[in-house]
Design goal:
Shape: globular
Largest sheet: 9 strands, mixed
Number of helices: 12
Helix content: 10-25%
Number of strands: 64
Length: about 1000
């Protein structure tokens, strides 16, 4: 669902920005233009301005200036040679609310690397100057009474220039060259990639199922001697589905490229070697029937290439490895040894002494922990025992490893609180949501001894009080003055009327990446939020911390790294004191010469122009830290001991197992439960800044919530953009894990009251979101809405279903429309908000407390009163976790079985792992039937706590209530007041003593 204030702006504003981001597209395939060889300085203008201020200026230097570029220019900002026109501007957040004045800035790149080079800047607000040596990496200097801040940033080269989307870079260093691989998504027909509102219903929906351009793996070469980049060269065939790439150079100077591709209905790992201008034969590294994705690669000291990846084997996600054997690779070896959980995000590194380490994170004991294994080649892959990097009850995941020249293994990982992905929503906050408090931790392993830096990494990271002033200058999110401790069960009780629980500001640093140069400097890169709000939603940028001796320097911002959250950078040392970082960016905040998306967000212009003008490109950032040897200062760290599983996690496994094992018979069919949901949001929603990365929606559904099926996600799969839709489609197939987890193709279609936000579900891949017609007025007569009727036709054509959500809010409906074939279910409860079943029901909204607005005509009871046949389900929406379930009774655990259950309304919603088997004679929940006897409702419930009340509700009235005070409920109630010749609906609501709820879908019974 969407925070209602943004729907119109989101689609409209993005379109307005498309003409300003990249006014002219250079020729595809051209070699990258080279910046000057000297350093680049970022000059922030207007730090602390309290009103919009002009900062026009010019720059000069006795040393030649290679270029001047804007830093997040907008509006009328311009660069003309060595002069610029620029002003500070109002920063707009969600709901178009002004959040203060946003500094402007310029990037000044010098032609030569001269420490004595003097740079003088004259602005309308004053003149100042500095020399290059005064501002090394990680340092900053203020001028004009603090209104100007200058720091050194890496010199950035734009590597790709086309209307396609380039993403998922990998990098490898060879003797004479640096190799970069990435995935290129081709837009097959940009003219059809429209957004916004249609004037009329299309004659056909076929164009929404047209073939996509697909992916192709590409490679670039950086010539170290000539300091130049090649044009991109193709690696794989076109029109593939690709899940990330990897690259490594073997001892024969062959460049090996790896990628995961869906060529035979399943993702496998493929490889190809490049040598002396020609490609070898494509090698299929994996052949198992399980999915294989996300390869990483390295080269050991003997010149042997190793590749690791995530694969689905034996009903679990594992980390696997293979080593080069001649022109091919060995049989895969399992690296992770999890008995019950999933293993994720392999990282690989090679040491000078010949060993290789593979690291990963695992959900084996009910929370994420990080491990590594050392291995070596000895006639085959020989592995040592796993070593815990961090194995507490906290969230510890997404590890990155790198060796230094002393054969020490460095490991950086992402950390969050205990009970990650557990109960968080409007009525309970005993858990931590997916992106509420994330920071980076670092350990170094010297043999078996774990070490840590004497310099405090936590104090150096964004989001810490110690660095608040510097962070504000760098335009990162403001730091909390008092650390927030999560989980905080009190937050739900402190929730304001018509508001959601608020955690306060926390660190939000994610996706660490590590490397070490020859001089001993350790580079730690990560993603962190950037201030301000764009028409694509939140923006995240790449930052780098440098560990020099006992001091952390930075964080250093990386220009042209603004993008969504999961935009993992790639790093490698390339020479004495030099490291290159490869990043992707869609320019959502940096924009182009004519301004960025913040400008469009403020102006609110209507969408126009082809979507292809807004895409991602690959950039290379060069760090030159100097030639001095700086050995990191370390101390012993014995805090990595493994802690036992949380008792709640153990209990939950048993409860989920009970639901998985339960079978029931219905006529000649056997039914089983599939627990899931289809209403989540991620970074790709324009209002998804605190929802977390797309991959974490899958981590959550597969692990933290142990779901059997799920749908993901977002408004029109990311604002109707072709590339975000394509990305979500790929993950939906990549994480189809046998019968353990079956993802569906889904998205939210947001039309405000009185028509309503609806969530679609399809079993079929390749169908794009449906654009909209004009919305009906809020107070219009309750006639059929043309847009909703068009949606029903679209769903009938593509065999989808839809569910209304938050029906009693401004995102809801007055129930003017329903199609029983494609709208057989309603989201009766939403974890982020409330219950829309009927007035005065538990957790129901009311006139004084309605999150998202108060629309009483949207109660589900009114739809049932109109005769709509709607089954009940619950889903999460934004932020909320672990308290909303759509439970399906299926004949088979497949996509087809899921759709059958929806159409037959064999579904119930719950806030907890509650097993519900409700029927009437030989008929099951969701059925419509006739009986010659007074209807009897048989109720079986298995709860996680004693049931305080169980109600049978007939035609919107409480017909029978029992107070069992037991976890298990089993009774039959017969309606002694049934009226012959009349159809009535009956459903069951169970209320546990701890406040958890279950809603069992109605049965429509006619008594003859």
């Amino acid at each position: 669902m969407k925070r209602i204030w943004l729907f119109g702006a989101a689609l409209i504003l993005v379109g307005a920005a498309t003409w300003t981001l990249y006014p002219q597209r250079p020729t595809p395939g051209a070699a990258a233009a080279q910046p000057g060889a000297g350093p680049t300085f970022r000059v922030l203008l207007g730090v602390g301005d309290r009103s919009v201020t002009t900062w026009d200026g010019t720059v000069s230097s006795p040393s030649r200036i290679a270029s001047v570029a804007g830093w997040r220019f907008a509006d009328g900002d311009r660069v003309n040679g060595l002069t610029w026109r620029a002003s500070t501007r109002v920063s707009y957040g969600r709901k178009k609310k002004a959040e203060g004045i946003f500094p402007n800035g310029v990037l000044v790149n010098l032609a030569e690397d001269d420490p004595a080079a003097r740079v003088e800047l004259k602005t309308t607000q004053g003149t100042f100057a500095f020399t290059a040596k005064e501002i090394p990496f990680g340092e900053e200097k203020s001028f004009l009474d603090g209104r100007v801040m200058v720091d050194r940033v890496p010199t950035v080269t734009r590597l790709t220039r086309s209307a396609d989307d380039q993403d998922y870079p990998a990098v490898a260093n060879g003797d004479d060259a640096v190799w970069v691989t990435y995935v290129n998504f081709h837009h097959a027909n940009p003219e059809l990639e429209t957004r916004g509102q249609m004037d009329r219903e299309p004659a056909s929906f076929d164009y929404l199922a047209r073939p996509a351009g697909g992916d192709q793996v590409m490679m670039l070469r950086y010539n170290k001697a000539q300091k130049s980049w090649s044009a991109p060269m193709p690696v794989s065939a076109e029109r593939q589905d690709v899940m990330r790439t990897a690259v490594a150079v073997d001892g024969q100077k062959r460049t090996w490229v790896f990628w995961s591709a869906n060529l035979n209905g399943i993702y496998d790992i493929y490889a190809k070697a490049y040598n002396n201008g020609s490609w070898g034969k494509e090698v299929r590294v994996t052949t198992d029937a399980g999915t294989d994705v996300n390869p990483v690669a390295t080269t050991d000291a003997q010149g042997r290439v190793w590749v690791a990846w995530q694969g689905f084997r034996g009903n679990s996600l594992d980390i696997l490895v293979a080593a080069q054997s001649g022109d091919g690779f060995t049989k895969e070896s399992v690296v992770s040894n999890s008995a019950q959980g999933s293993d994720w995000d392999a990282s690989i590194a090679a040491a000078p002494n010949g060993e290789v380490a593979v690291a990963w994170d695992t959900y084996d004991k009910g929370d994420y922990d990080v491990y590594f294994r050392r291995m070596k080649w000895d006639g085959g892959v020989k592995q040592e025992a796993p070593v815990a990097i961090a194995a507490s009850t906290f969230y510890e995941a997404r590890v990155s490893v790198a060796y230094d020249k002393q054969n020490r293994l460095w490991a950086a990982y992402e950390a969050s609180g205990v009970k990650w992905g557990k109960d968080f929503g409007a009525y309970e906050t005993s858990g931590v949501a997916l992106y509420q408090d994330h920071d980076i931790r670092l350990r170094c392993f010297q043999g078996q001894q774990a070490m840590t830096t004497t310099a405090d990494l936590k104090e150096a990271m964004p989001g810490r009080a110690a660095g608040a002033a510097a962070l504000r200058r760098r335009q990162l999110k403001a730091a909390p003055t008092t650390p927030v401790q999560l989980p905080d069960p009190k937050l739900a009780g402190m929730r304001p009327a018509s508001g959601t629980p608020q955690t306060g500001p926390t660190p939000l640093n994610a996706f660490p990446r590590l490397t070490a140069d020859a001089n001993g400097v350790v580079y730690l890169s990560f993603r962190t939020p950037s201030a301000g709000f764009t028409a694509l939603g939140s923006a995240w940028t790449q930052h780098v911390l440098l560990l020099e001796g006992n001091d952390w320097k930075g964080p250093v911002p990386v220009p042209h790294s603004d993008y969504w959250l999961d935009a993992r950078a790639a790093l490698t040392p390339i020479g004495q004191g030099q490291v290159i970082l490869i990043a992707a960016s869609d320019g959502r905040q940096s924009g182009g010469a004519e301004g960025g998306l913040q400008t469009a967000a403020k102006k609110g212009k209507k969408a126009a122009g082809p979507q292809a003008t807004l895409n991602s490109d690959i950039y290379a950032a060069l760090f030159s830290a100097g030639t001095g040897i700086r050995t990191p200062a370390l101390q012993a760290d014995n805090s990595a001991r493994t802690q036992p599983s949380d008792s709640d996690a153990v209990a939950e496994k048993a409860q989920v197992k009970q639901m998985h094992d339960y079978r029931t018979a219905l006529g000649g069919e056997k039914l089983q439960i599939m627990r899931g949901e289809f209403h989540r949001h991620t970074e790709m929603s324009n209002d998804g800044g605190r929802d977390g990365p797309l991959i974490d929606a899958y981590r959550y559904m597969v692990d933290a919530a142990a779901m059997d099926w799920g749908g993901c996600c977002d408004h029109d799969n990311g604002g109707g953009r072709e590339y975000t839709w394509w990305t979500m489609q790929k993950l939906t197939d990549a994480y189809k894990l046998g019968t353990r987890f079956v993802p569906m193709f889904s998205y939210e279609r947001s039309v405000t009251y009185p028509e309503g936000h609806r969530n679609t579900v399809m079993a079929r891949r390749g169908v794009r979101p449906l654009p909209r017609l004009q919305k009906m007025a809020d107070d219009s007569p309750p006639t059929h809405a043309p847009d909703t009727q068009m949606l029903y036709k679209y769903l009938r054509k593509f065999d989808g279903i839809v569910a209304m959500h938050t029906s009693g809010t401004n995102m809801g409906t007055d129930w003017r429309d329903n199609d029983p074939i494609v709208e057989p279910v309603v989201e009766i409860y939403q974890g982020d908000r409330q219950n829309y079943e009927m007035p005065d029901a538990p957790r129901s909204n009311n006139s004084k407390d309605s999150i998202g607005g108060w629309r009483p005509l949207g109660f589900v009871s009114l739809a049932l009163e109109k005769g709509y046949k709607l089954a009940f389900q619950a889903s999460s929406d934004h932020i909320s976790t672990h308290m909303s379930y759509c439970n399906l009774w299926v004949t088979k655990p497949t996509r087809e079985g899921i759709m059958e259950a929806f159409h037959k309304r064999r579904v119930y919603g719950s806030t907890e792992n509650i097993l519900a088997d409700v029927r009437s004679g030989s008929h099951f929940m969701g059925e419509e039937f006739t009986t010659t006897e007074a209807p009897a409702i048989s109720v079986k419930l298995w709860g996680m706590a004693p049931f305080a009340k169980v109600h049978v509700i007939k035609d919107g009235k409480y017909a029978y209530t029992v107070e069992p005070k037991t976890k298990n409920v089993d009774f039959t109630w017969r309606d002694a007041n049934a009226t012959k010749g009349r159809q009535s609906y009956y459903y069951v609501r169970g209320e546990q003593a701890d406040g958890e709820l279950v809603w069992v879908s109605p049965m429509w019974i006619t008594y003859r």
